[in-house]
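Service request form, structural biology core

Requester: graduate student, group of Dr. S.
Request type: structure prediction, single chain
Budget code: on file
Notes: please return the result as structure tokens.

Sequence provided:
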Amino acid sequence: MSLYRNIVWFLKGIHEYTRSGYEAESRSFVAEDLNLSVVGRSFMITGANSGIGKATAMAIAKKGGTLHIVCRNKDRAEDARADIVKESGNTEVHVHILDMSETRKVWEFAEAFRKQYPSLNVLINNAGCMVNKREVNTEGLEKNFATNTLGVYILTQSLLPLLQKSRDPRVITVSSGGMLVLKLCTDDLQSERTRFDGTMVYAQNKRQQVVLTEYWAKANPAIHFSAMHPGWADTPAVATAMPQFHQMMGARLRSAEQGADTVVWLALARAAAKTPSGQFFQDRRAVPAHLPLAWTYSTQEEVQMLVARLDTLAQSARPESQSSGSQHSSTPN
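Core staff response, request fulfilled:
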């Protein structure tokens, strides 16, 4: 990460990513965009038991959507469901237990979901982690990467057929403005060759998510894809993974609901579906996925290399019963 990118990004963050930044931008929001019912539409939200994921689930439940909340911890998931049902009055909230860091289990979950449910209108890839020391999952894959990148890749790829046969399908991935400081790296996906820095690994994973969003949008024109930055929000995940930052920013952090606002808008609003697919959003508008003069653009070859390596890792962890008929999408021109 260059010093230039770091300075520009932090100054940008203080101005745009804080509570005051949201409040300034929200003055231009169109209130009617979310004045609608989504009864009959189904939404899958990963990491929905707290923070931005739970705030997103709550907002969608209040609009009548059928929710599939995918969480790692059963007790916390059931508590979240109870809160959502009580506040929204919507009982169509289904709990699914899955640890997104366990690659084979992501495959198994997606396959089981496709068999059980006839459609899925919106997939919201929200679950993520920032592990500050190098740990590996059951398959020997670094946990941040397994959760934030490979898990998102497998879940999305596996659910493409379900999304494609659903009305107005959308995929939203909750990324981070932290990805702006890094260029895509494809030759050390497991963070084995350099000193491990959990914050930078997370930022690289988030860059990978944005690159995948652009790739998927080209490969699957029938589905609307978007990535977004929620801003700097006061969530349990931020407090746990970045305690010093959380304490330093204090009241300047956005609420979870403010962080979730653009996710909800992308998932529900008709105006969102009319925007070009594959863009990066912040506060309900598309914003550049690169800082000025930062040299973080990816070549087509780098994108193809990322996808090829993800597919190889994904297929190596795929259960034998699913090994035939890969859902890998075609390469866009």
